[in-house]
Here is the input.
Amino acid sequence: MTDSASRREFFQSVLGSAMAASLAEQVLAQTAPSAAGIPTRVLGRTGERVSILCLGGWHIGAVKDKAEAVRIMHAAIDAGITFFDNSWDYHDGRAEEVMGEALASGGRRNKVFLMTKNCERDYAGSQRCLEQSLRRLRTDRLDLWQFHEMVYDNDPDWVIEKGGLRAALEARQAGKVRYIGFTGHKDPRIHLKMLGKDHPWDTAQMPINVMDAHYRSFQKEVVPVCLQKNVGVIGMKSLGGGSPRGRIPTAGGVAAEECIRYALSLPVSTLVVGIESMEDLRQDLAIARGFQALTDAQKAQLVTRVRDQAGDGRHEMFKSTQNFDGPHHRRQHEFAVGG
Here is the structure.
C-alpha cells in the first residue's frame, strides 16, 4: 500500500467519509519546501502559503526578558517560521507590544503572516480592539483577525447579533484586515455553530492533539466540515496546553516530538507552538525541517495507546474545566475571575 493510500485509509476512519479523507490528503499534498527549510501549506480558501509551524503569541509574551523575546522572534523568522500568532488580551497587551517591536525592524513585518485575535463580540468593542492591536503591533494591517475564544454556547450568536462580524467586515473593506476567522478550545459543538453561520470564515483555530481523538474531538467533528467548506485549519494545544513542555508529554506518556508530528500529520495548515526560549525554538525547528508525516500505522498506534487515559479530558483541561478560559471572556459572561 502506498503512503498516500495508507493516509487516506486512516483519514477515512477518523474523518468519517471518503470525501473528507480525500480532502485531507489534498491538504498534506500541498506541503512544499521553502528556501529557509520549514515546509509550507496552503491556508484554506485564502490561498496563502504559511509555514507549518506558527509562533505562539501567549508564550512569547511570557518571556520575561523583552530583548530575548525579540531575539527569539528574529531567529524564528530567519529559520522560516513566518506565521505569527497573537491576541489582544495576551499578558494585558504586552505580547502584542513585544511582537510589534520585533517586527518593526529590518522590514520583518513584511516577512510574516501576522494574526491576532479580537476579544470583543460587539461592534464598538471590536473596533476598539482592532485599533489597539494595530497600534501595539506597529502595523497598518493584519493578515488574519480571528474572533477569540468561542468557548461559551452563545458566543457565535453574539458575534453576529452584537455587531462584531460587521466591524470585521468593515475593517476588511478598509484594508486593515485581510482575512477573518475564529478560535476556540472548549467544545466542537460551538465551532460547528460558528461554521453554520451565514459567513464564509477563512480560518478556524482549534485543539489538535492525540488525546483529542477520544474526547470532544475537533479532529473528528470539526475538521471534516472545515475541509468541505475550504476553511483553513489552524491547530493548537498539540501538547495539551500549559508550558511549552505541555501536559501530554509530562503526564500522558507521549513524547513532545510524537505529539507535534501527529498534529502535523493531520490536515492542518499550520500548528501554533509555544516557544519561550532558543532551546524551544531549536527543538521545534528540528521536527519541522524535512517533516515527514506519520504513517497510518504510527498514527493508529498512538491513538490506541492513549485511549484509556484520553476519554475523560484529564489531559485536555481547556475542554473539561474553565481553567484555560481567559479572564476577559469570563467577565463578558459574568463568571467569576480568579479564586
